[in-house]
Amino acid sequence: MTHHLPVRRRLSGVLPTAAHLMAVLISTGNPISAQAQVQAHSGEDRCTDVNLTTPPSQPVRIRYGLTGGGEEPLALLWADKENYAGNGRFYQLEPQKYASNDRMTAVQAGQLDAGSISLTALITSVRVGVDLRAVASIVETSEQDNQGAFVAMRDSGIDAAAQFKNKRIGFYGPNTISEYWIKSALRRAGLNPAEARYVSLPPPAQEQALRNQQIDVAWLSRQFLAKAEKTGGIKVALRPMQATEQAHPSTLVFFTRQFVDAHPQAFCAWRNDYQKALQNWRGGRPELYAKLIAANYLTPAAADAGPDGGRAEGGRINVGDVQATIKDMVGVGFLPAARTVPAEDLLMKGYALRR
Q1: What's the predicted TM-score (pTM) here?
Q2: Which of 131, 202, 242, 254 has the most CB atoms in a 10 Å sphere around its CB?
């Protein structure tokens, strides 16, 4: 959204995109193959046994696929590189922004080792056997987050989810976390999620569609919300945590199991640096925005959109929250029960940051 690295174009060939993987899953209902099942390891932290005192002769490349929004602490690893000793010694982080459908295609093509992923895309990917698992939380939906909001025009009479019946609601697209949020909110308000009309729009188009009366409710992420509030005439109707009443990671870090198995030292050095970056971000966000702008990760306008919030302590994933969220996704009709996996199976055993 606010990142300015070049966006990867769709890869050639017939490798499946995330959307195609979802379609295959829906049509076949096939379980994950035995070869792709999560390895049955205990819950120990394997990084405690990894030597992080002696780096390799050459740092290991980590080809990382960005979404371009919400990854501020992660971006410090290259924007403020001198403060993260592992990058350049144990590993060489190579960030690259990918369009959402192309990130999983790149994983399938062997062109990515790690990346950012939504909870919904993670569930789908693991369910159909893509060789990746979550290792840390990036953005967490919680009482503290500031991811954005569902908004309406101030004179619309729409103040809460209970008034969304038969309304045209803007969201980012089918199977996205924004679709889950709105469907969860409608059910909690006593409505059938099918009683609203959903309009898929890219982020920059949401505000204008709302002001043009093409939709009645828009989802505006943090920077777009700040811009719209400065223009005036809108009001917040619903925040993500109000929608679900259940904390959960909305964006996570994944690594391929092949990479971690081959390069545990590089992974554990990255993990240490990432946790340090989260701590530094929590304590020094105003000063660090300038470095993210200089590295072309953020624009000044995005940095002026208010605190991002929604960071899990230490990047740790609450497995219980994830399992409760999956249950809610099924309950609101967002995710059929046959297309789920247990929360434990979404995590990299022995390496994921968890709580």
Answers
A1: 0.85
A2: 254
Q: Tell me the pLDDT tens digit for each residue of 174-209.
A: 889 999 999 999 999 999 999 999 999 998 899 999
251 forms beta bridges with 118, 139
Q: What is the pLDDT of residues 273-319, one digit of tens each?
A: 999 999 999 988 888 999 999 999 988 877 778 778 799 999 999 99
At CB < 8 A and 24+ separation, what contacts does 15-19 make? 15/105, 15/108, 15/109, 16/104, 16/105, 16/108, 17/101, 17/102, 17/104, 17/105, 18/100, 18/101, 18/103, 18/104, 18/105, 18/121, 18/124, 18/125, 19/101, 19/175
